[in-house]
Amino acid sequence: MLTNIKKWYRPHTIDEALSLMKKGEVIPYLGGTGFLHGKTVKASAFIDMRGLKLNFVEQTDSGVYIGAGRKFSDIGKCQCTDGRVILRDAIKQAASTPLRNLITIGGSLAMMPAWSNIVTPLLALDAKVEILGTVAGTYEIEDYIRQKPLDGTSLIHRVFIPLVPGNGVYYRFGKTRFDYSDLDIGVYLEIKDDLIGKARIVIGNIFPKAKRLHNVEDYLVGKTTGEIQLVEYFQKHNIFPTKTSSKLSEYWKNIIHVHINRAIKEIEEKFQQEKNQ
Amino acid sequence: MKTVGKSVKKIDSLSLSTGRMKFYDDYSFPDEAYIKMLFSPHAHAKILSIDTSQAEKIDGVIDILHFKNVPRILHTTAGQGFPEPSPYDAVMFDNIMRFVGDRVAAVLAETPAIAIEAISRIKVEYEILEAVFDYEKSMDKGTTVLHSEKDKKYPIPIPYYPEKNIAAEVNIDIGNLEQGIVESDYRFEETFYTHYGAHAMLEPHGVVTYLDENNRLVIITATQVPFHVRRICAMVLQIPIKKIRVIKPRIGGGFGGKQEVFLEYVAGLFTLRTGRPAKIVYTRAEVFQSSRTRHPMRVTIRSGLNKNGQIHALGIEALMNTGAYGSHALTVLSNGGSKVLPLTNKVPHQRFAGTTVYTNLPVGGAYRGYGATQSYFAVGQVMDMMARKIDLDVLDFYKQNTIKVGESSPIFEKLGEGKEGVKMIVDSCGLEECIDLGAKEIGWNSKRNKRIINGTRARGVGMVCLMQGSGIPRIDMGAAYMKMNEDGSFNLDIGATDIGTGSDTILGQIAAETLGVDIEDIIVLSSDTDQTPFDVGAYASSTTFISGEAVRKCALKIKEEIFKVASEMANIPIEKLELKNKQVIWTGGKLDFKDICIYALYTNNQLQIQATASNIADVSPPPFSAHFAEVEVDTATGEFSIVKYVAAVDCGTAINPKLAEGQVEGAVVNGLCWALTEEYKFNENGKMVNADFGRYKIFTAADLPDLKTILVPTYEPSGPYGAKSVSEIAINGPGPAIANAIYDAVGIRIHSLPLTAEKIYEKLKQK
Amino acid sequence: MKVKLNINNHDKLLEIHPGETLLETLRNNNFKGVKCGCGTGDCGACLVILNEDAVNSCQVLTASIDGESVTTIEGIGSMDKPHLIQEELVKAGAVQCGYCTPGIVISAYTLLKKNQNPTDDEIKAALDGNLCRCTGYVKILDGIKNAVKRMSAK
Lengths: 277, 767, 154
Prior knowledge:
The structure holds three protein chains of three kinds. By secondary structure, chain A is of the alpha+beta class. Chain A has helices at 14-21, 72-75, 85-92, 97-100, 105-111, 119-124, 141-147, 214-220, 230-236, 242-245, 250-276; strands at residues 7-9, 26-29, 45-48, 57-59, 63-67, 128-133, 137-140, 154-162, 167-173, 183-192, 195-204, 210-212. By secondary structure, chain B is of the alpha+beta class. Chain B has three domains: 28-129 and 205-281, Aldehyde oxidase/xanthine dehydrogenase, a/b hammerhead (Aldehyde Oxidoreductase, domain 3); 297-472 and 619-766, Aldehyde Oxidoreductase, domain 4, CATH 3.30.365; 477-616, Aldehyde Oxidoreductase, domain 4. The longest helix of chain B is centred in the last third of the chain and has 28 residues, at 543-570. By secondary structure, chain C is an alpha+beta fold. Chain C folds into two domains: 2-75, Beta-grasp domain (Ubiquitin-like (UB roll)); 84-153, Orthogonal Bundle (DNA polymerase, domain 1), CATH 1.10.150. In chain C, strands 2-1-5-3-4 form a five-stranded mixed sheet, with helices on one face. Chains in contact: A-B, A-C, B-C. Chains B and C meet through helix 1 and helix 17 of B and helix 2, helix 3, helix 4 and helix 5 of C.
């Protein structure tokens, strides 16, 4: 029971919703799972977003748009074989089956609750977040995480995933299948003629949100898979930002090293299989 | 046997699965009001002042309770027999707060929301006191004392030194441990740590109370111990027992967590003061922090082993943390010896030395396994170490050293519950068969000591042998009442408390078997203090064994009553009568049950065919079990998984095999979660920081490893139809079995729970 | 405020608090088979079917589903006419305390609606939101597998 909620608005357009938000103390309600954890919500009214029909998916030549209201369970059904498997696999492992029937991609990005593992795959896929309202604009996912632009009078409209012809893997580490993950890893690679063209390596949930390991990516790009000596690389380079690395136990550092290495091998095998077919 | 030994459907299961059966929160009454508690944010503090005036002003607030307006009646919240073997160190509301989650005040209001609002308006001024969180330091000189009031004491003579934070002590010796260790060829000393654990029953604690038409206090409560609830409430509320009726509805699991009496009298007092029905439902966070937990324990094993494989000395030294109050402080501790040492009964030199201490942390209590779980984590690993030391297969080591039929253990007699135990000979033991069948199922011979490696992954197998008890001898009593109806059906009224275990069904089966009728002909009513006879309740693995025998005796008496009436009707001597197919038969004639009952009720010398019986036991026959685990460890990271788990159990006759298996499977998975994924995490102020199922993790079906249960039938002559207990024993296995399997896989030993990848990684690195 | 819900195939006009959860609404309206085990979406005792999907009713505000359809455990089967999933859970010995059972039935029911022939792993995965502390899940999985067999035999 959220006792301070007094009213519901049920707009039919995004403009209507945005003008309602300007009244203050009014929060858009999508899946709703971020609100009911025993804490009070600083709002007196919710906006029922169902009328805005934000649960769409739109495929274009340059990529795919996912509406903010699209539920995890629907995104998890994606029949993709390219880099989008990272997003699909992440979402299939998020929370539980009944919660995935409620959680939306927009809600998860807006609230970023402890259990959200949406950021890691979106970083690995170089996604963009489109926001409407007072801070309207298209935000690179890295900027979105850094800036936290949502200001109470803006809302996420859709998420753009560019074409990701390469391949990827997503790993998640928790105590049980349905757990807030202690750590997740997303790795996206494009390999052509054994040469790594693009690399995006992401570790998440161990930091406040998630982070791309640009230095590791730079090391990988341009090398053949046979040349990579990640074990040695990790021994030589501290890939962790100084601020949090002190909190990170040797155990977790090792998990990250071992599994990034395994991820790359796994992707390489996927490319080999494709080549052989 | 017609009904016993058959997996008849649990009699309430269809109603439960369609959502019909009622739990306490499903009862609502007109004019019902709601209770919320204010809990201490400090681990140790004195309340200097409490001001409820702002809360009272809120429209809809009916009443507020706190230490200034309730009587100070010392009691224990442990729902045990009387007088309880637990210290009287608790009061309903106190001015000293002893852990984060101790209760400051309670509000009764028209709605839960108003009660929550009122709680936030109560102003409390605290004097913060020094707190002790490390139970290994509780007894140190100069440490803050939790219970300094002079009137705190046990109701029975037990060593109790609250001025040193000592809540209980147990010391027993068989032979001379020191001498035994010196004499041995090999000596061992190992220390292990077990951690807190939540019962995590799905239904939160709660109660609803009201005054009936005669102004008697009715308590509908989620309890394992309805008769103890009545007794403790009468004491704390200072009203006669005759003014209280306790009704147990369906209960959403207990595991020991509902063997505690701490909410019923709060709701009861509100109802007595206001005349209003009062309901309290703990939130899940409140259940985690403010109900009861598994006592953490440090267990040091010192043992001596001879080259011929005989254990020559075995000592268990236990330090137990009971948290802020001493609920079950003595008996959980002593069970760490009494349910463990008799397994290796032939050791000439044995010791159990235990101390329970207070800390400013959540309160320990009864929890399935009850001290044995903690102790087996240590003993089960040392058994593995000893067998390895002399290159003996641990299976043979167990067979050589464990108790056999016809044997006894001096521990049975020396170590009881709050007093000495009872002499006892083991009359049934299927342990060797458990070992053999379990070993075959896990593939022991092809896997043990083989370190099967695949890339960075290594596999290993480990095992442990276990025992428990069946009720508390000469203390636990269960009673049954039966009467016959004119359609040939029978009412069975029992004090025994079905908390989801299926005891209503099992006791119904025992009655049906004895009378040769179907389970459908037995109408079971359990646990209503006005309507059923006494029973201690659902704990100590007692119900099937103790209450089950009461039911069998009662049904035998009913049979005699039926024969008497039939004899009169047919004018045939009783000796010539037999029961068959709901008829009384004799050579040349028969009478239907229903005609016998109609005759008895309406025709001649009218009477009710009825009987009652009570049962106590002189013995507590142990069930035995062998558990096996196969694990796979990733040597690059320490991550590991359970490949397969096997539990072979001798519970005597399984009255209902599927329900018995269910007890084993439930206990194994409960033990797996506790050993692997569950953990109470506290901040520096002693507050639990993961008090929800989102962060305190137990398995779902998606985490379930391949799990196989094997029931090994034996016949226990002292139990009903050969039965002994099954509910607790299996929770003791996962911790030691998995730790032993990890050792088999990668050669490292983990001395503390939970068993985590991080601990394995650290040890692998050191290697 | 007032909302319209179709509950177990009956249209209902309900007076609710705007901040009320679906779990509260259902229990207040006597659908007591829907249980509360945690209130945080972590245990699955409160599962109901929203339109066609299982959801945690403690995580849904009733006002947010105005006009939609809800099926509770009371709408799946009754004592007189149990659903075969309920029958098979009973037969398998999968019901101990029974507090989680309505939620388990809802998970199994929605799974079998969408996938008549699930693999063992798919059944386990479909139950990843249901906690049960009594059974250890073995008999629950047995019961659901038997229900699958019975359904495919039909």
